[in-house]
Amino acid sequence: MKIGNIDLGYRPVTLAPMEDVTDPSFRLICKEQGADMVYTEFVSADALIRDIPSTMRKLHINPSERPVAIQIYGREVGPMVEAAKIVEQAQPDILDINFGCPVKKVAGKGAGAGLLRDIPKMLAITKAVVDAVKLPVTVKTRLGWDHNTKVIVDLAEQLQDCGIQALTVHGRTRSQMYTGTADWEEIARVKANPRLRIPLIGNGDIASGEQAVEAFDRYGVDAVMVGRASIGAPWIFRELQAAVHPERNLAPLTMAEKFALLRRQIRESIDRIDERRGILHIRRHLAASPLFKGIPHFRDTRVAMLRADTYDELSSILSQVEDLLSPP
Predict the structure, then answer these.
(1) Contacts of range 254-261, beta carbons closer than 8 Å, 24 or more positions apart
(2) What does R_g of the chain's alpha carbons equal in angstroms?
(3) pLDDT, tens only, 37-58
(4) Which of 46, 107, 144, 307 has the greatest number of CB atoms lying within 10 Å of its CB?
(5) CA distance 47 to 53
(6) Which one of the listed residues 101, 162, 201, 240 is annotated catalytic?
(7) How many CB atoms are located within 10 Å of the residue 88 CB?
(8) Whether residue 30 lies in the annotated active site
(9) What one-character DSSP code corresponds to residue 218?
């Protein structure tokens, strides 16, 4: 599958853009574990234009994580064009436009999924950004604003006409947020449109190799995107690649290797920020990690793990859990 001149190979698996999750360290680890392409955290066009330091730092790319897409969001044509030109200077492989974020602080202000209520403006933004940069431009969006306004089949074709070179569809409406289940049948309807010529990336609830294979075999997407299932579990990409490409004979990681990856995330988060804030940042990964699911009488240990405020304290707790889970 190609996006512009970027060849992602056959049946690629990609890492979704996620706020406060897809920082440079996490992206690189996911890349090493098998992600064929990674996305930055989504970046506010208005904040880029104002040269906000914390936002500008989100444009930093490690050459080892390529191919990488930088994703921007905004609600007006002018700022989005200006932000796109700033992003182009950071030299990502792809520029992605976020028309899918459902959270109130974004969608409620008319950006992200909020533009599903103003399709003409969405198309105007897309066309203007495509015309403003030389990078391949892609879009990520949802099925529609709500159950009664699922517009994605026609919208996909309209976005294609604006010049985008790939489309990612999350199989929920904005009103669903992240509840219920993703509607892959609707994603399949997009792919079945004979007038759709650009690659289609399916997103929503991919959490196992079997689901990834089904996305390709049953629903016909060109690539899959993984979001929440990767939080605290970057090794999921190795597991998905093993299922989608069994000829590669990829062995699963051992428990020790998975704990080593979590420790690496903690260390690199601390190195990037500082010890206190680095640990605060990584708690979301620890809270979501499947490594700790189903451990009996784990509540007190979990609370201690999420309250730890030094690397030594946190590493000691992880060692205790690892010993508990290791075979005798």
Answers:
(1) 255/291, 255/322, 255/325, 255/326, 256/322, 256/326, 258/233, 258/291, 259/291, 259/318, 259/321, 259/322, 261/29, 261/33, 261/234, 261/235
(2) 20
(3) 999 999 999 999 999 999 999 9
(4) 107
(5) 9
(6) 101
(7) 15
(8) no
(9) T
- Residue reference for tokens 């044509």: 77
Token digits for 202?
A: 């399916």
Spatial separation of the C-alpha atoms in residues 325 and 134, rounded to whole Å = 51
Q: Where are the beta strands (DSSP E) in the chain?
A: 2-3, 6-7, 13-15, 38-39, 43-44, 68-73, 94-99, 137-142, 167-170, 200-203, 223-226
Nearest CA-CA partner of 15 in 220, 172, 234, 167: 234
Please check whether residue 159 is in contact with residue 117, taking contact to mean a CB–CB distance below 8 angstroms: no
Residue keyed to tokens 């629903």? 219
Query: pLDDT tens, 95-131?
Result: 999 999 999 999 989 999 999 999 999 999 999 999 9
Give residue 249's identity as a one-letter amino acid code: N
Tell me whether strands 137-142 and 167-170 are parallel, antiparallel or unpaired. parallel
Q: Closest Cα partner for 19 from 54, 62, 53?
A: 54
Cα distance between residue 144 and residue 196, in whole Å: 18
Q: Which two tokens stand for residue 232?
A: 């605290």
Is the pTM for the entire model greater than 0.90? yes
